[in-house]
Amino acid sequence: MTIQQHTITVGDWAQLERVLRNSGLSQSEIGELSGVVEQDGKKMGSAVLEWIKKNAPKAISGGVQIGAAVGQSLLTEYLKQYYGLG
Fold it and tell me: What is the per-residue pLDDT across 27-86, written as a single tens digit (0 to 9) for each?
């Protein structure tokens, strides 16, 4: 299985949203993330980490459902890019 790589510019919500939609997440799930990002402030805090765990099994890559652990890694990487956490 090949995991699609995406680069997200720090702080670019529209880009993050597009990547998450392409990864199989619904608009309501992304809306929920928006709320937890606001709740956690400018860091990847506990609310964001809980959102990742909850939504990891829903992630897809290249049109293929991926496992929860891989999905968690993928979503974590996207959000790390968004927050600028190398």
Answer: 999 999 999 999 998 889 999 999 999 999 888 766 666 778 888 898 999 999 999 997
In a domain, 37, yes or no: yes
In-domain check, residue 39? yes
Look up the domain containing 20 and give its range: 13-83
**Would 7 be classed as within a structural domain?**
no
CA distance linking residue 54 with residue 38, whole number of Å: 18
Tokens of 72: 């968690």
- How far is Cα 60 from Cα 38, in angstroms, rounded to an integer? 25
Q: Which of 44, 47, 69 is nearest to 56 (CA)?
A: 69
Rounded to two decimals, what is the model's pTM? Answer: 0.81
